[in-house]
């Protein structure tokens, strides 16, 4: 994880960046003890990929952060909320890529499940506002296309 994955995350090929993120997701599930000491460095590599030009890389970054939010609970919530929650909330604006939006939402659920109340209180207004905005956008799209909520 410390040898090949950083090279993959810095690759010009989106497929390698995606693969590196998926490797982190898989490793996080079983290597918490090994990875906890390098958690800040790993997060410093993942968070910028939330803004990658390729939506599949953004999706994989959300996936990795969601998995890590569960596997490193509550440490990640207490120590890294300033970096992670605003970044994930911003991905809810990715209207052109519903899969990215959905996985950002799922990652936030994983993060919030392990977050102390004091941490969540800092973000509740921004989070509620953003969720309302996303819901309104999707209801508007559904009404314009004549589709139903399922």
What is the element layout, followed by pairings?
Blueprint (H helix, E strand, L loop, with lengths): L3 H6 L4 H17 L1 H4 L3 H8 L8 H17 L3 H16 L7 H16 L3 H5 L2 H22 L5
Helix pairs in contact: 2-5, 5-6, 5-7, 6-7
Order of helices and strands: HHHHHHHHH
Question: Could you tell me the number of beta strands?
Answer: 0
Radius of gyration: 16 Å
Strand percent estimate? under 5%
Q: CA-to-CA gap between the ends? A: 40 Å
Q: List low-confidence stretches.
A: none
Secondary-structure-based class equals mainly alpha
The largest sheet is: none
What's the pLDDT, averaged over the residues?
90
The general outline is globular
Counting DSSP H or I runs of 4 or more residues, the number of helices is 9
Helix content: over 70%
Architecture overview:
With 150 residues, this protein is mostly helical. The protein has nine helices and no strands. The chain has helices spanning 4-9, 14-30, 32-35, 39-46, 55-71, 75-90, 98-113, 117-121, 124-145. Helix 5 (55-71) packs antiparallel against helix 6 (75-90) and helix 6 packs antiparallel against helix 7. The longest helix has 22 residues, at 124-145. The chain is globular and about 50 Å long. The N and C termini lie far apart (40 Å). The mean pLDDT is 90.
Task: Produce a short descriptive summary.
The chain is mostly helical and 150 residues long. The protein has helices at residues 4-9, 14-30, 32-35, 39-46, 55-71, 75-90, 98-113, 117-121, 124-145. The radius of gyration is 16 Å and the shape is globular.
